Amino acid sequence: MHKVVIPEKVVARVIKRQGRWNVHDDVPAGRTAFVVVDMQNYFMAPGQQVEIPAARAIVPNVNRLADALRRAGGLVVWIRTISNEDSFRNWSHFHDVLNTPERRARRAAAMAETAFGSQLWPELDVRPEDLIVRKTRYSAFIQGSSPLEVELRQRGIQAVWIGGTSTNTCCESTARDAMLLDFRTTMVSDANADHTDEEHNATLINFCINFGDVAATDDLLGRLQKAQAAE
């Protein structure tokens, strides 16, 4: 698990701007979605090209949040990244410029629709009522990547919690775009994972300064419990 460190001066800066540390704690659970990004074998299984060992450590928190939000009437969304002809054609510079030919070929094979690498990690508590969405770019919200925005709008979702891997790539991209699309967005500090503590914390710091809330699993669980007790 990452050691989360957000400097006090950053916390003070956020509170000065918005009046309190977290400002998205008043959205009803029924209007909230927990969007879990890329918790799939390619990023989690030992020996995979982009294995992120810390992602295995956050599985219990991801499952706890999913279970609690589900029971409170919210939506759980599992995002899978896949490689297909659309991504090769419309995101070609990533595949052809930012990757060597060997790496591109390995990624394409591992992330095909039916390949091992594109399948969700088996220890995740995925339920039939959850939504599973495929994306083809870092962000699940950017135009052409996935139908996630439409799916959430149709369900009346106003707020999203972002978890998954990696913190500073697909999770951050998805979280930023969620905020820019006017979803009230929270990154879950201990339900995201990256290669290093430094990368993880850099994203959380930048996100809370400029884009939305950062909260821990227990904070969000406590929020749900408090709302249920008040009903």
TrEMBL record:
<protein>
    <submittedName>
        <fullName>Hydrolase</fullName>
    </submittedName>
</protein>
<dbReference type="InterPro" id="IPR036380">
    <property type="entry name" value="Isochorismatase-like_sf"/>
</dbReference>
<dbReference type="InterPro" id="IPR050272">
    <property type="entry name" value="Isochorismatase-like_hydrls"/>
</dbReference>
<feature type="domain" description="Isochorismatase-like">
    <location>
        <begin position="32"/>
        <end position="218"/>
    </location>
</feature>
<dbReference type="InterPro" id="IPR000868">
    <property type="entry name" value="Isochorismatase-like_dom"/>
</dbReference>
<dbReference type="Pfam" id="PF00857">
    <property type="entry name" value="Isochorismatase"/>
</dbReference>
<dbReference type="GO" id="GO:0016787">
    <property type="term" value="F:hydrolase activity"/>
</dbReference>
<keyword id="KW-0378">Hydrolase</keyword>
